[in-house]
Amino acid sequence: MNSTTYNIPNISCNHCVKTIEFELGGIPGIEDVKANAETKTTEVVYKEPATEEQIIKLLDEINYPAVG
Q1: Beta-carbon neighbour count of residue 58 at 10 Å?
Q2: What is the spatial distance between Cα 7 and Cα 39, in angstroms, rounded to a whole number?
Q3: What pLDDT does residue 16 have?
Q4: Rounded Cα distance, 49 and 38, in Å
Q5: The model's pTM
Q6: Burial of 42 (C-beta count, 10 Å sphere; 0-12/13-18/19+)
Q7: What CA–CA distance (Å, rounded) separates 53 from 23?
Q8: Tens digits of per-residue pLDDT, 11-63?
Q9: Phi, psi dihedrals of residue 31, rounded to the nearest 5°
Q10: Is 53 exposed, middle or buried (0-12, 13-18, 19+ CB in 10 A)?
């Protein structure tokens, strides 16, 4: 199992948090998603078949690109 924290500057409110958690939670293999509007970060716990590339791609597609 993998755990990665992404910096996402576009997170500004609780709606952003819910959107990110819902969208990433739909990827098979995602175990947990915790987005935080205050720190502008999202922690994702995942295992196969989910990949980091899938996570980053989906974040881009929903207009919450990860940086750094």
Answers
A1: 16
A2: 8
A3: 97
A4: 30
A5: 0.94
A6: buried
A7: 15
A8: 999 999 999 999 999 999 999 999 999 999 999 999 999 999 999 999 999 99
A9: -95, -40
A10: exposed
